[in-house]
What does this fold into?
Amino acid sequence: MSYSGKIVWVTGASSGIGEALAKAFSDQGASVILSGRRVGALDDVARACRGDTLELPFEATDYDALPGIVAQAEGWKGRIDVLVNNAGISQRSLGKDTKFEVYRELMEVDFFAPLRLTQLVLPAMLARGEGHFINIASVAGKIGGVLRTGYSAAKHALIGYSDALRAENEYAGLKVTVVTPGFVRTNIATHARSGDGSERGRSDEDIDSGISPDEAALMILAGIAAGKREIPVARGAIAEALKLKSIDPERLFDVMAAQGAMMAARE
It folds into this structure.
C-alpha cells in the first residue's frame, strides 16, 4: 500500500494514535501535515517522519482561526487528500458527578471541532471529486460504559455524523472511514476530564495493557486498504463486546449495568 504523492493531515499528531498514524503514512510515501498543541512534541514527530512534513499547531476549538489554518494546510502542497480527525479528550467520572461544563468541553473537542474542520476541508475535496476523511472515534461511540457518559455521547455523535456524511457524498468520490479504538496504550486516560473538569492524572490498567499505538496504526491502514468503512481497533473482551452489541444488545446492556452496580457498591 502506497500513499506516494498524497497529502495527509493528522490532528492530535503529537502523541498516541495520531503520532503513529503520521509516521505510518509517512512511511508509505505521504507528505504529512502535523497538527496539535504541543510544538516541541510535533518537532519530535516531524524528525521521526521519513518524508516532507509541515508542522501546523493550533487549538482544535479555536473556530475563528480555523479558516486560516485550513488555508495554510491547503496552500502547502495545493490540496488535502486525507484528513485524519484524531485530536480529542476523554472522561472518567460518573454522570451524577459531572458538571455541565465538562459535557460541553467534551462535545466541543470530540465532536464540534472535527465537524468544523471537516466542513472547511470538504468543499475542495468535493470540487476535485476525491478525498478521504478518517475520523477516530472510539468503542465508546458504539458502547456506553461507566465513567464515560460525555465521552460516549460525543463519540456516538461523531460516528453518526460520519455515517451520514458518507451516505451523502460517497457517490461523489468522497471516502469517510470511522475508526473505533478500544484500549490503546496512550495518555488518553491520564489526560481525561474528571467530573469537575480537572485532569485525571493517572492511567487505567486496561489502557496500559492495551494495543500499542504502532499496532493500532497498522490495523487502521490495513482496514483502509481492505476498503472498510468502519475499522474496529480492539482485541479480546472489548472486541467481543463490539460483536455483542450487534448480535445481542440486551445481553451487552446487562453486562454494562452489572459494571455500574459493581462501581456503586465500591463507593
User: Anything to note?
Assistant: DSSP finds nine helices and seven strands in the chain. The chain has a mean pLDDT of 97. The radius of gyration is 18 Å. Strands lie at 7-10, 31-34, 53-55, 82-85, 131-136, 174-181, 230-233.
